[in-house]
Structure formats: C-alpha cells, structure tokens
Write a structure and sequence with these properties.
By secondary structure, the protein is an alpha/beta fold. It has 2 domains: about 130 residues, Aspartate Aminotransferase, domain 2; about 60 residues, no CATH class. It has 6 helices and 4 strands; from the N terminus they run βαβαββαααα. A 4-stranded mixed β-sheet has the order 1-2-3-4, with helices on one face. The longest helix is centred in the last third of the chain and has 24 residues. The radius of gyration is 21 Å and the shape is globular.
C-alpha cells in the first residue's frame, strides 16, 4: 500500500504464487485498494480447488483462475471473472456472432464472451464433472480433500526442513497444497542422499 499513489489505476496481485506456493492475504488488500478507487486484478491460477474461493466475497474487480490444476479439468479450462460494474466496458479480443446479435435475453457481455467462434468449449464443459468427481474422492467432499492435500504438504515440508537443517520460509497458515523449501549450501550428492532417506522413512 505504500507504493500506491494518486496515479495508481490498477493493481495486479497473486492469490497463490507458483514459485513459492504462498497464499497471500488478499481480502484486506482488496478492501483497501477498492476503497481508494483502484481496480484489482487477481492472478488466481492455483486457487480453484486448492483453497475455498468465493469471488463475490473476495471483492476483486477481475479474477482469473485455471481449472486444470487442482480441479483436474482438461487444459484450456480457465475463467475470467469481471465485476458486474465493469462488464459493459470490456469486449473480447476476438469479436464473433455475439457482437451483432439481436437477442435480448442475455447481456451484451455474455453474448460477446460466451462464444467466440473457433474456441473449443470441451474443456469448459468438463469442469462441472471434474468438480463432482474430485469432490467424491473423500467422504468429506471438497473440504476434506483440500485439508488432506494440505496436511500431506505440511508433513513433507516439515520432514525436508528438518533433514536439511533449514527453517520453513513462511508460517503454515500461508500454505495450501504446495510448498517450497530453501536448499542449504553444500554437496549436491549429500543433499540427494539425505532427502531420499528422509522421504523414504516418512512414508514407509
């Protein structure tokens, strides 16, 4: 927020970084930025299926996420959420049939974005079934699945940090279903051996 000025119009934030696996505390940041009249675009590629996600509660102006990662839908299944107040100002890069449609049962936004002519809709159509299937893997549904994945990641991270003699780079509260561990200086052969022994013992 210290970098925000009167010239700031749009802020891009990661929800979960692919490089570190950190989950950022978006809600207070979004509230402050939107309250200052600044639009917010969230890169949420890893969020759907890893953590609970309610776009309306989050309050970002724009949110984009992938469904082929933790939802296990086919590649190409992604989405772009745009707050209702901004939908009339945006048009797709590829204009297709919706641009001159006379239909009145859908908004111009839906008419132009829902069908762009040459896009294969198959990945999108698979998303509901992917959600249903993944949610059926454990008795507790999606809540249990996300918790299960998180517990496994935290256990492995703890074992690796202990074996390597390093401190976790962030608190457990910032971890979802993936994490990174800093590697200490030293012999690659020694690291490889110690890591193999640690992981083998942990999961025997």
């Amino acid at each position: 927020m210290a970098k925000v000025s009167s010239r700031t119009r749009l802020v891009l934030l990661d929800h979960i970084t692919s490089q570190t696996g950190l989950i950022f505390p978006l809600q207070p940041l979004i509230q402050q930025l939107v309250g200052a009249g600044i639009e917010v675009l969230i890169d949420g590629a890893h969020a759907p299926g890893m953590i609970p996600l309610n776009l309306k509660e989050l309050g970002a102006t724009y949110y984009t996420g992938n469904c082929h990662k933790w939802l296990s839908a086919p590649k190409g299944a992604a989405f772009l959420y745009i707050a209702a107040a901004r939908q009339d100002d945006l048009r797709p890069l590829v204009i297709s049939h919706g641009a001159n449609s006379s239909r009145s049962d859908l908004s111009r936004f839906r008419l132009e974005f829902d069908w762009t002519g040459t896009a294969d809709p198959t990945p999108y159509l698979c998303v509901p079934e992917a959600i249903r299937f993944m949610g059926s893997l454990l008795p507790g549904g999606w809540t249990a699945l996300m918790q299960h994945n998180r517990e496994k990641v935290l256990a492995v991270r703890q074992a690796l940090c202990r074996t390597l003699g390093v401190e976790p780079p962030c608190p457990d509260s910032m971890i979802g279903s993936m994490a990174v561990v800093p590697l200490p200086d030293g012999s690659a052969d020694r690291l490889q051996t110690s890591l193999f022994v640690s992981i083998t013992l942990k999961f025997q």
